[in-house]
Write a structure and sequence with these properties.
CATH topology: Sodium/glucose cotransporter
Mean pLDDT: 84
Number of domains: 1
Distance between the termini: 55 Å
Strand content: under 5%
CATH architecture: Up-down Bundle
Number of strands: 0
Shape: globular
Order of helices and strands: HHHHHHHHHHHHHHHHHHHHH
Structural class: mainly alpha
Low-confidence stretches: none
CATH superfamily: Sodium/glucose cotransporter
Length: about 525
């Protein structure tokens, strides 16, 4: 092991031990509300950075820059869609969801909110939404584990042992995340996410700026550097309306990329942060902090993808493009002990992005199994202690499933995130919006819409017709189709079935006057 690798390894070990210590320090959870919502006591900074850090997983530092590196500025439309979604989510959903979950029998989870919102005595809505959470979070968590594995493989592996280091990295990433999530619950996850959100921001800001300065000094301009590195049409590569070949981007592609905005309304690991915010005053402060964080981080990640194309000595291909941030750090921070250690800390920014999302996803999955499936349907008389242990066992089970999904070293981080994002956005997004803002919405409409959204994404992404999936043959993102169909079905079924009871509509009206 070279001295540089040893220095980076030391940085990694220090960082991961810090996260475990925070988890242990927040291990005193009296009940499920403490473990899953932290007693609804999040302050503005913790809520904002925790929500956005859990949102911007390894794909922010690996998947998104890799896509832009490979395809050019035209891929920035994804970042624009995500910014729009973040803003709408904080302004439309955050405050009202926080209030409504209190009115709706102090709901601790998204499935329990759905059940309480529609007074579902059958439990069907809670079970359906819990199953959707388990399925799509297994895929989403796999993307985070894959990010960690690729980080280890590229930093500590080379040549023949790269695949072996991928597996080692996968084991380490999964183990550390499991330990502090298992120990500490929601508070541990939010406090670690706060630290990780700050580290991610510093890393994603510093690396592209340093790389851009180096490119400007060596080539005079980014355009000249791109030309020197084999980009045939630098102007087209840097044009928001063109792809890397200089061809115009289709309207269909722009719509699909902007469609990522719709996913935010259905992301359980983000929505749960809104439910846990301390007060209305904190919501208002949190939204400003969160939106500023997202503007900076998405802008810097996009810039990194572009600058790295002209900066990196090594030209990355389709299979290696998602290592762009790792390669940039290793190239920038080399030469002496101090630089290498700083590079190691910045590489921990990738660990931060990975861990801040995976821990949140595992915790939401645990709450769905513990509160909604076990205590809500299987054993309604279960004690708080037993239900809590069932949730913790679920954390381990889902992590194992995600581990096996991520075992393939060639798995695409962006592809895994894209599918999970679409699943949640289409299944839950329309239901959340209608539940919060439409008084006439009912149980039948919610069940029909939720099932339609989830089924559409699965069919669109995974079921081939005439040898191709609809996603491949049309080029349209499944989230756009799934969200639209789920919304239409939910509204039509609600209008064709019995209106909600006066008790339900009175609760809807009560939300307007409830103070938090």
């Amino acid at each position: 092991m070279t001295s540089n690798i040893t220095i980076i390894l030391v940085a990694f070990v220090i960082y991961m031990l810090m996260m475990i210590i925070i988890g242990a320090a927040n291990s005193k959870n009296k009940n499920n509300e403490d473990y899953f919502l932290g007693g609804r006591g999040l302050g503005s900074w913790t809520a904002a950075l925790s929500a956005q850090a859990s949102d911007m997983s390894g794909w922010l530092l690996m998947g998104l820059p890799g896509s832009i590196y490979f395809a050019g500025t035209g891929e920035v439309w994804i970042a624009i869609g995500l910014l729009i979604g973040t803003i709408l989510n904080w302004y439309l959903v955050a405050r009202r969801l926080r209030k409504y979950t209190i009115v709706a029998n102090n709901s601790l989870t998204i499935p329990s909110f759905f059940e309480n919102r529609f007074h579902d005595k059958s439990g069907v809505l809670k079970i359906v939404s819990s199953v959707i959470i388990i399925i799509f979070f297994a895929v989403y968590t796999a993307s985070a584990f894959s990010s960690g594995a690729k980080l280890f493989a590229n930093v500590f592996g080379s040549g023949k042992n790269a695949d072996a280091m991928y597996t080692v990295g996968l084991i380490i990433a999964a183990a550390v995340i499991l330990i502090y999530t298992f120990l500490g619950g929601f508070k541990a996850v939010c406090y670690t996410d706060f630290i990780q959100g700050m580290l991610m921001l510093v890393a994603i800001l510093a690396v592209p700026i340093i790389a851009y300065i180096a490119v400007s000094n060596d080539y005079g301009s980014l355009s000249a550097a791109l030309s020197a590195k084999g980009v045939h049409d630098p102007a087209g590569y840097l044009n928001l309306m063109k792809d890397s070949n200089g061809d115009p981007i289709s309207f269909k592609s722009i719509v699909s990329n902007l469609g990522w905005a719709l996913g935010y309304f259905g992301m359980p690991h983000i929505l749960i942060r809104f439910m846990a915010i301390k007060s209305d005053k904190e919501v208002k402060k949190s939204r400003i902090i969160a939106i500023v964080w997202v503007i900076i981080s998405l802008g810097a990640a996009s810039l990194l993808g572009l600058v790295a194309r002209g900066y990196l000595t090594e030209v990355l291909d389709e299979n290696t493009k998602e290592t762009v941030f790792i390669k940039s750090i290793l190239q920038i921070f080399s030469g002496n002990f101090v630089l290498v250690f700083i590079g190691g800390i910045f590489l921990c920014g990738i660990l931060a992005a990975i861990m801040s999302t995976a821990d949140s996803q595992l915790l939401v999955t645990a709450s769905a199994v513990s509160e909604d499936m076990y205590k809500g349907a299987i054993n309604k008389k279960a004690s708080e202690k037993n239900a809590l242990w069932v949730g913790k066992i679920a954390v381990v089970a889902v992590a194992l499933i995600a581990f096996f999904i991520a075992l393939n070293p060639k798995s695409s981080i962006m592809g895994l995130v894209s599918n999970a994002w679409a699943g949640f956005g289409a299944a839950f997004g329309p239901i959340i919006l209608l539940a919060l803002f439409w008084k006439r919405f009912n149980l039948a409409g919610a069940v029909a819409g939720m099932a339609t959204g989830a089924a559409t994404v699965i069919v669109w992404e995974y079921i081939p017709f005439a040898g191709e999936t609809p996603a491949a043959s049309t080029g349209l993102y499944s989230l756009v189709i799934g969200f639209a169909l789920a919304l239409l079905v939910a509204v039509v079924v609600a209008l064709l079935t019995k209106a909600p009871s006066k008790e339900i509509t009175d609760e809807f009206d009560k939300v307007k006057t409830t103070e938090i």
